[in-house]
Amino acid sequence: MDRNPTPDMSEYAGVLDRRLEALLVDGLLVVLTLGVLGYLGGALLVGGAVGGFGGAIVAIQFVAPFALIGYQTAMEGYYGQTVGKSLRNIVVVDEDGSPVGWGGAVIRNLLRIVDALPAFYVVGVVVASLTDDHQRLGDLAGSTVVVHTAD
């Protein structure tokens, strides 16, 4: 995965297409990783398959939401995109087209909590649908946009 791929500032990522697909890929990646780690941890600490499944459930239910935000923040802060965004050829950049900084990555991802309200990213989808550059609240606060890559 390239670090800070070249953005195509003429083509903003849509609201419910590539961005949603990238989020689903990233969520699946995080949930599968935590499920495996939770299973192994539960099996070791409690013992057996029952403990393993219990550990997986706890990891997925309670740790995954925070891990997803941490994963997205770290990947966007360093690479400008997550694995899902890379697969969908989109990148997060500052509004001027320069690589997103750590501050923008942190702000946009912390506000995912608000964008996800009341459920299924309703606030984020509505706000992104109403803005010219398809920015959700996190993007507006972090001065970021999601655009297609030029590659």
Can you walk me through this structure?
This protein has 151 residues and is mainly alpha-helical. It has one domain (11-149). Helices cover 63% and strands 11% of the residues. It contains six helices and three strands. It has helices at residues 18-79, 83-87, 102-110, 112-115, 122-130, 137-142, and strands at residues 7-12, 90-94, 144-149. A three-stranded antiparallel beta sheet has the order 1-3-2. The longest helix is centred in the N-terminal third of the chain and has 62 residues, at 18-79. The two termini are 12 Å apart. The mean pLDDT is 96.
Average pLDDT score: 96
Number of separate strands: 3
Give me the strand/helix succession: EHHEHHHHE
Q: Within the largest sheet, what's the order of strands?
A: 1-3-2
- N-C termini distance: 12 Å
Backbone shape: elongated
- Give me the Rg, rounded: 17 Å
Whole-number count of domains: 1
> Which class of secondary structure composition applies to the elements?
mainly alpha
List keywords for this structure.
151 residues; mainly alpha; 3-stranded antiparallel beta sheet; 6 helices; 3 strands
